[in-house]
Amino acid sequence: EETVTMTVTYAEYQPHVGDQDALKLTVAGAVQETGQVLAKELRVQLHTPELTLTLLGPAVVGQEVLVQVVFQNPLPEPLSGASLRMEGAGIACPKPVSL
């Protein structure tokens, strides 16, 4: 038995992920003595960062309320073209905010 550790860096998988939230890893090997080929696949679910919402004042019917949204970029590069959209009861259309 032997354990082999391999590192897959963000730079390696980033061009292939796109808007997907998972990676499919495949490992294959062969037994020299028998010629038997072995293979195994693993689907890895990438974790999406959480948004944290906090009311910055009292929520009163008929009045505006400020909401703080916190998002931490886990990637080693800046995001571009990101936007947030708020939806809810009484909001006629989603309100996008470009970041």
TrEMBL record:
Signal peptide annotation: none
Superkingdom of the organism of origin: Eukaryota
Molecular-function GO terms, alphabetical: protein-glutamine gamma-glutamyltransferase activity
Alphabetical keyword list: Transferase
Statement: the UniProt record of this protein carries the keyword Transferase: yes
UniProt entry tagged with the keyword Transferase: yes
Cross-referenced SUPFAM superfamilies: Transglutaminase, two C-terminal domains (SSF49309)
PANTHER family: PROTEIN-GLUTAMINE GAMMA-GLUTAMYLTRANSFERASE (PTHR11590), PROTEIN-GLUTAMINE GAMMA-GLUTAMYLTRANSFERASE K (PTHR11590:SF49)
UniProt-recorded name of the protein: TGM1 glutamyltransferase
Gene that produces this protein: Tgm1
